[in-house]
Amino acid sequence: MAEQALTMKGLDHQVPEQETMGQIVWRNFRRHPMGLFGAGMLLLILLLSVFAFVSPYDPEDLDNANRWQTPSWEHPFGTDKNGRDILTRVAYGGRISLLVGVLAMTTASIAGTVVGGLAGFYGGVIDNLLMRLTDFFFSFPQLFVLLFLSFILRESNITFMQGGLGNIILVIGATSWMTVARLVRATFLKLRESEFVRAARSYGASDMHIILRHILPNAIGPVIVSGTMGTAWAILTESGLSFLGYGILPPTASWGNMLQDARTTMGVFPWQTVFPGMMIFLTVISLNYVGDALRDALDPYKLVGHMRQ
Amino acid sequence: MTRYIVRRLLEAIPLLLLVSLVMFFVLRLVPGGPLAVYARGQITPEALAQIRVKLGLDQPLIVQYWRWLQSALRGDLGSSFDTGRPVTVEIGERVGPTAYLIGSTFLVVLVISILVGVLSAVKQYSLLDISTTTLTFIGQALPVFWVGLMLILIFFSWTKNPVTGKPLLPASGMSTVGADFSIGDWLSHLILPMTALGLGWVSWYSRYLRSSMLDVVHEDYIRTARAKGLSEFKVVFKHALKNAAIPLVTIVALDLPVLFGGSLFVEIIFSWPGMGRLFYRAVERRDYPILMGTILIIAAMMVVANLIADIVYAYLDPRIRYQD
Q1: Cross-chain Cβ contact B299/A140 below 8 Å
Q2: For chain B, what are the domain ranges?
Q3: pTM
Q4: How far apart (Å, rounded) are the C-alpha atoms in residues A144 and B265?
Q5: Which of A28, A3, A63 is nearest to A299 (CA)?
Q6: Each residue of B254-273: pLDDT tens digit?
Q7: Helix (H, G, I), strand (E, B), or coil: what is residue B160?
Q8: Which residues pair with B160 in a beta bridge?
Q9: Which of A3, A179, A181, B174 could pair with A112 as two cysteines, CB 3.0-4.6 Å apart?
Q10: How far is B184 from chain A (nearest CA, A)?
């Protein structure tokens, strides 16, 4: 207030030290212990996956002399029915799970932003049609659609990238864009008639310019939050599909297909069932905690409040 | 109200037509198409061509679809490639077990989450309340299929019944094969699948009910109820709960598709003879008629479920009136 008053009188004033957006978000985020726990956990899982190559074992080579070893110093998580070190496979599987999670979520967010943006900006018939489509995807069991799409891709002998990685990113992205679409549409509906958009129109800004520069930035907060949760959901979905045999194809390791592999022999050898599942659980819960903390940290009212202080 | 229901059902027709049309074309455009299943065996090209003509696959796609639609409207969805039995019969047998699994899970989930949700709202910041919040995050992060596998490990492989020495709980099917019907047998078969399917939902709904109860308890009508001298039990469970439950109805209707997805895993892991497993078998064996049939039936079930949710919503909240 003091500074403002000075400015109004036209007197010399000092610009108050402004925090950047990032600093404000971090300050808010820090206050959530579980969010910090989640972020730390994710960092550990990321390091484990990135440095998977440190392991002396190969994730895919068979070693039948050492099958079904219980956890020991040489094999902390034991070995599977082909003598492969489970910890090594879990680490390599982490690469796949994290990659699928992030890329599928990115695909879904982009698709959702396009659908929601078009619907909200143009309204009318376009809005109506796109929202019917969104409702439909929302009301149908996603898993059935996922299985059906994966089935069609496999029947057509279409495989993108190693182990069908591209396929699964594509099908998860194609069936998870609806939440983002609704969020973005709501932002567009709210701001379409706002004064700054009308001002931009009055100086002849193009639709594209208004959409990208004036409206979309306001939707970024909610999209980031839903993207974090979406990554968790994509990782769960990938492991589920791989568990059913329609995700990442062996011998490429993924947490889901390791569980599938473990299922037939789990009565006699439970270790392979325990660890990959534990990893899925830890990753998903960490992402959800981070998302929850971000929701609070990116709350626009809080951001604006801090900026004004 | 009747007119509203009829209108909603009529609105669903174009949707179902569109689903069937898309499914039909996509399945026909897949290389090999429905004939791939015949082509796997020892068969001469001439015989294959004969089957093609016999199944009408030499006709233009739109004609094929029209024929399929005509018989579908008469209730004939074709026959399973795998077993040769009519699709309607195959699916008919599976609807019951799935409804039994989802329905009973749902009831138990609702009862538990109402109790937990109400108690943690009434005793806010108590130990129960704090653990509910933590459990919510845990429940949402547990993959259904992993919970299923772990339950089998713990209660089937590792724990034995101290009297008979058999596994503590059965882990496959709806009842013991060949045994006479007994409620105990059915219930014991239900416990593990139900737990695997319901665990996440209990945590989710308790948390949800907790927050909507907290919204409601400060309303004027709750104070009025207390002022009238009603017992605390009546105030909480009758006046507060009924209003707190309203938003839950919409959530439940939205979640039903996800519950269906979860039941697919549970049915496969616990060899439950339901629709999810039928669909999975159809995918595995390229059983096109069954694929198409299950998807259509599920789409129809979702339409009905959403309608029921809207009707319950109107019943719970008298301010809502649907226009005819």
Answers
A1: yes
A2: 2-316
A3: 0.85
A4: 11
A5: A28
A6: 778 888 888 999 999 999 99
A7: strand
A8: B167
A9: A181
A10: 25
